[in-house]
Design goal:
The complex is a heterodimer of chains A (about 230) and B (about 100). Chain A is mainly alpha-helical and about 230 residues long. Chain A has helices spanning about 5-35, 40-50, 55-65, 70-80, 80-90, 100-105, 110-120, 130-160, 170-180, 185-200, 205-230. In chain A, about 75% of the residues lie in helices and about 0% in strands. Chain B has about 100 residues and is mostly helical. In chain B, helix 4 runs antiparallel to helix 5. The radius of gyration of chain B is 19 Å and the shape is elongated.
Chain lengths: ~230, ~100
């Protein structure tokens, strides 16, 4: 079997455990979009074109509140700032690849596959078959995401509001954020950002989110610096 | 609000963020300080998204027992912290919300 094929298959296999984590997010996102009154066609278009769960959940909450267009797009941009980091960190592995392949990687660059890819190739950026692995990994993940969003849309449109499924979106954010809290600077960043978001809630144009992100980042960086000085 | 324009704007922004460094020449690097700052973005932003949903009731800070969403959120945080499971966190949080709603 040619190497490209082996790596593609390895990518397919590696993606399977991730589907368990992706499916609930897809479902919750679909349900949230239905609850926000987004029609199925627009919802699926967003799911395929944007293909970024957390940003979509955040946008959907704002759309439901009737926020201005630019505010929704800006909120999605803030939520997705981490993608700059992924793009920069994965670039060395794909510099030799064609533009078309780099565009495919750009489209499919989402959290879990990114982490898995770096895990596999982190110490050998020159290994062959990297694109095939990434591509193989991305296909089941993409399919799983789109089908579970569609399922969520169907379910969400049928369940009554009494089920309080609108609360599923904040719960998904809780699951995502708490999983990241591995050290003290990260906890400090999260807590300060959360507190800022609550206190700055009254600011116009959802500036509270951008302000909370700024405060959280500053607190995290400062905390990191001070704890390093302490341990010296 | 034109939903299609929002979708277009979000698509362009998100794709631009992902493609940014993958398409830029290699001499354009992410400065170390910016990399360190971006490291804290997910935890900060994601927490900022749910904190007001739990702590505010009709745009007013509420730490009362009657705030079922806060209580259910605390249950969800505990589950997420202890077990690190996505689906379990969502199910437990929704179940807790219904339980507290019924109790208070």
């Amino acid at each position: 079997m040619p190497l490209a094929r082996t790596e593609f298959n390895a990518g397919l296999r590696a993606s399977l455990p991730l589907l368990i984590a992706i499916a609930p997010f897809g479902l919750v996102t679909g349900v949230a979009m239905a609850a926000a009154g987004i029609p199925p066609l627009e919802a699926m278009a967003m799911s395929v074109l944007v293909y970024a769960g957390a940003a979509m959940l955040a946008a959907v909450q704002l759309i439901a509140e009737g926020a201005p267009m630019l505010v929704v797009v800006l909120a999605a941009f803030v939520v997705n700032l981490r993608l700059f980091m992924y793009s920069a960190s994965i670039r060395p592995y794909f510099t030799g690849e064609s533009l078309g392949r780099r565009l495919v990687v750009s489209y499919a660059l989402v959290d879990n596959p990114y982490a898995l890819f770096i895990q596999r190739y982190g110490t050998r950026p020159d290994a062959p078959g990297k694109f095939d692995y990434f591509f193989g990994m991305s296909i089941p993940i993409w399919l799983c995401w789109q089908t579970t969003v569609a399922a969520g849309l169907v379910v969400g449109n049928q369940l009554p509001a009494a089920w309080k499924l609108d609360f599923a979106a904040p719960l998904a954010f809780i699951a995502m954020s708490v999983a990241l809290l591995r050290d003290k600077p990260m906890v400090a960043a999260a807590v300060s950002a959360g507190a800022t978001a609550v206190l700055a809630h009254g600011l116009p144009l959802r500036l509270g989110l951008a302000l909370a992100a700024t405060v959280g980042i500053a607190v995290g960086v400062l905390f990191e610096r001070f704890s390093k000085i302490e341990t010296k | 609000m034109n939903l299609w324009l929002v979708i277009l704007g979000m698509s362009v922004a998100t794709f631009g963020q992902r493609a940014s460094f993958l398409l830029l020449p290699e001499r354009v690097q992410l400065p170390a300080w910016l990399r360190r700052a971006l490291h804290y973005v997910p935890a900060a932003v994601l927490t900022a998204l749910w904190a007001p949903e739990l702590l505010l009731q009709n745009a007013v800070l509420s730490l009362a027992l009657g705030n079922e969403r806060l209580l259910a959120g605390i249950v969800a945080i505990a589950i997420a912290w202890r077990y690190r499971v996505t689906f379990g966190t969502i199910v437990a949080g929704l179940a807790a919300l219904h339980l507290f709603d019924w109790m208070f």
